[in-house]
From TrEMBL:
The lineage of its organism: Bacteria, Pseudomonadati, Bacteroidota, Flavobacteriia, Flavobacteriales. The chain crosses the membrane at residues 20-39. This is TolC family protein. GO terms for molecular function: efflux transmembrane transporter activity. It comes from the Bacteria. InterPro entries: MdtP/NodT-like (IPR010131). Keywords: Membrane, Transmembrane, Transmembrane helix.
Amino acid sequence: MKLKDDLTGGRKMLGFVQFISKVAVLIFIGISSSVFGQLSQTDTLKLSRQQYEEFFLKQNLLLLAETYKINQAEAMVLQAKLWPNPSLSIEEINLWTTNKQLSYLDEPLPQIFGNVAQNTQFAVQLEQQIITAGKRKKLMDVERVGVKVAEQEFEELLRNLKYEFRNTLTELQYLQLYTQVFFKQQDLINNLLNAYRRQLENDHISKGEYMRLQTLQLELSREINALSKTKNETEKELKVLLSITGPASLFVLEDDFTPDLHKLKSFDVLTLQQDFLNYRPDVKLAELENEHFKSLLTYEKSQAIPDFSLNASYDRGGGVWPSFFGFGLSIDLPIFNRNQGAIAYAHVGVENTSLLSDDIRLRAQAEFEQYFKDFRTSLLFYESIESEFEMDLDEIFESYTRNFMSRNIGLLQYLDFQEAYLENKKIILESKKELHLQFERLQHTIGKDI
């Protein structure tokens, strides 16, 4: 999926994942239902790389959780938009009066309604803070940068998780294929042992030759055991990324393990080099940190201009007039605190993040140059292996096996070729694996799928 082509594409992906988190039941009915159908029937999940990745994007808990951070950031923009609440205070209430107190009045205080509050003094004040210097708008600008940061943090998490997921998938595929090579060898040696056992019983071969085959079988079993443990560890990591629990095994179909040379050779390095900084979430995050401090500096400067409060008050029986309505204004005098520290903090933050942003861009450029060279090196090595070499290798090994069973070649000659066969099989599989890994590292460096 092309999730990082541009910021718009990234936002579409964010919306897509948010939508997925809200309608998880419907998704579960789709690919998830077929997946778990496989699990219930065979205890083995068999999918292609692309199907596993689609499943990963729908199920990974870290990705789903990260979308809520975007919602939190958007909520802070809403909060910054709100005016402060007015305040209402009621005070100077006398809960009772004495005859002596009443004697001082020229005339009694009337009731407010019914028999309530006769001869009761109280004061009511309503106050509203007025925010000056466009502080609300400036604070909203700060929080909007926070939304962009949350979006890029999602993109960075997605970028890193996809890199980890794809490499783990490649490792599992490699281990499966390499283990199959040893299983085939083990089956072959078992057949040879059965045939040699009959010849040993008829004294046609020495016991030493038979035991040499037994030793080889034991070595193959040891290799299979070690590979199985490594494969189990890799499956565990993949299950965590897929949010799968239970004893089910994972199997990656083999078809897409062989690299597409036409696609891999068609990349234009100059185009990639010119554009890749526009896709790197960590580079964008560094730039947004600088933008955040610039917005914060503007906001902190506005904080040096004091807000003021308007108030309206009513006083009953507390002054010269029995009922008094008044209005007022209050304002802080910026004599001691003119927000100097916060302004200096934001100013230093602008300078600091500007330098860090430049450093990250330089590191990203150096990474791109190195990893593109590594990718080209792996591609050239894989191209150096003739396309028919692996098939020829299998055919020749089958021919050696037939000649060995017909006793046209000796045991030592056969074992030497088998060792060379296993080593070359490993080299071929590792070259494919390495090309996958280098390609994914290049994509991770660029910040988007290519």
